[in-house]
Design brief:
Helix content is 57%, strand content 16%. It is an alpha/beta fold and 147 residues long. It has a single domain (3-121), classed as 3-Layer(aba) Sandwich (Rossmann fold). A five-stranded parallel β-sheet has the order 2-1-3-4-5, sandwiched between helices. The radius of gyration is 18 Å and the shape is elongated. The relative contact order is 0.13.
C-alpha cells in the first residue's frame, strides 16, 4: 500500500483528498504547511506528495525546493487554485511531477498519482539493477586479476 502525504493549509481539501485516496487503498498522512511537510518527510518516507502552492509559513514552491534535497526520488504533484501557467511551468522545471488546478479533477489526480508512483518505482528498480550489475562486474574484474 503506497503512502501519500497531502500538504494543504485548508482542512476541507485535506479531508476530501484523504477520503478519496483511502477509498483507493492508499495510506495517507497530512501536513498543514511546508514546514509541517518537511518534519513529516524527515520522519517517514512517502511514495508521493500532493503539495499545495499557496500556504502560510512556507509556501509550496519553497517547500518543493527543500523536499528535493530531502527526498529527491519522491514524486511531487503540485495543486493550487491561485496559480498561473507560469507558476505551473516553474514548479515542473523545479522538479514537480505535475501540476493540477483546484478543485482537482479526481480522475486526473488519481491517474497522475498512479503514474507518478509507477515511474518512481521503475526508477528505483533501474537503480537497483544497475548497482547489482556494477557489483557483479567489479567482482568478475577482481577474479580475473587474481588469475
Amino acid at each position: 500500500m503506497a503512502k501519500i502525504l497531502i500538504v494543504d493549509d485548508e482542512q476541507s481539501i485535506r479531508r476530501a483528498l484523504r477520503d478519496i485516496l483511502e477509498l483507493e487503498k492508499y495510506q495517507v498522512d497530512e501536513a498543514i504547511d511546508g514546514l509541517d511537510c518537511l518534519v513529516k518527510i524527515k520522519q517517514n518516507s512517502y511514495e508521493a506528495i500532493i503539495l499545495d502552492i499557496k500556504m502560510p509559513k512556507m509556501d509550496g514552491m519553497e517547500a518543493l525546493d527543500k523536499i528535493q534535497s530531502l527526498a529527491s526520488d519522491t514524486p511531487i504533484i503540485m495543486i493550487s487554485g491561485h496559480a498561473t501557467i507560469d507558476t505551473a511551468v516553474e514548479a515542473v522545471k523545479k522538479g514537480a511531477y505535475d501540476f493540477i488546478s483546484k478543485p482537482p479533477d479526481l480522475n486526473r489526480l488519481l491517474i497522475t498519482l498512479r503514474n507518478a508512483i509507477d515511474k518512481s518505482s521503475l526508477i528505483s528498480e533501474k537503480r537497483c539493477f544497475k548497482r547489482k550489475y556494477l557489483n557483479q562486474r567489479h567482482k568478475r574484474s577482481l577474479g580475473n586479476q587474481r588469475q
